[in-house]
């Protein structure tokens, strides 16, 4: 009995079928885990900030540390002009982090292992940051494509390359998260299959590798959420403080 | 050649791109380590840059893996 490692990424309907015209918007397992993730974040932060003690309890310390991490990240990369965007970056980081981490539990569904989820996040970020850039700098935002100190004869080529690399930002942002999550979970499933097929005698070797791989995946879950957030801050810095 | 066989060969060739990911990650961590040996007190400040560099290098390799999976499962 071999399990197809791709079956874990199936999206299926839970509950009644809801149709909006031709589009199926029924509740799926993906929606379930997105809801679980959002509710977990809200409840953890609600419980953590209820007592508001000056000397924090352990869970309040957790909330304060995550606040401080994101606040420092925004301040270091995007400067003080990006302070109004803190709630967005914080929600983004927490959502991606909890979605990734929830996928590490057995029998759960990893929401961010689908390109449409990560692409939706990255597209919103890309369109939002482009709008922020044009609102803050007007047409001067296009100076983003003209780095300083470039000799004049190279300028047309550099502008084309810069435009292509700017347009590839949402693609790279979304594919990075999607590929990391999908590759990690596929590998875990494949090595899990090896454990079963090698049985009692040889099964300890892939099992120890699977344990090591799971710990690596937990690290990657955190790291990918952090990289997603910090790249958003870097792009926000480009939009707010044009210094090319 | 049948489509199935061509898919297998294409996916195998696309996975060679992961070698670049390995080399890139090795370079980044090697440079961080040699910098940290020279100036240990400044090493902790650059740790976020290390993680960012690692993730970006890994991402490029994983783009190749994505192409391999697209060839295998989407055509």
List keywords for this structure.
heterodimer; A: 244 residues; mainly alpha; two-stranded antiparallel ribbon; 2 strands; 68% helix; 2% strand; globular; B: 75 residues; F1FO ATP Synthase; 4 helices
Structural class of chain B, by secondary structure, is mainly alpha
Distance between the termini of chain B: 15 Å
Q: How are the strands of the largest sheet of chain A arranged?
A: 1-2
Which regions of chain A have little confidence, pLDDT < 50, spanning 5+ residues? none
Q: Can you count the helices of chain A?
A: 7
Instruction: Count interface residues per chain for the largest interface.
Output: A-B, 17 and 14 residues
Overall shape of chain A: globular
Classify the beta-strand content of chain B into a percent band.
under 5%
Compressed to H and E, one letter per element, the order of chain B equals HHHH
Count the domains of chain A. Answer: 1
- Estimated radius of gyration of chain A: 22 Å
Number of strands of chain A: 2
* Proportion in β-strands of chain A: under 5%
Largest sheet of chain A: 2 strands, antiparallel
Kindly, what is the distance between the CA atoms of the first and last residues of chain A, rounded to a whole number of angstroms?
57 Å
Task: Write down the overall geometry of chain B.
Answer: rod-shaped
The main sheet of chain B comes to: none
The low-confidence runs of chain B, each spanning 5 or more residues with pLDDT under 50, are none
Main CATH class of chain B: Mainly Alpha
In short:
Chain A has one domain. Chain A is mainly alpha-helical and 244 residues long.
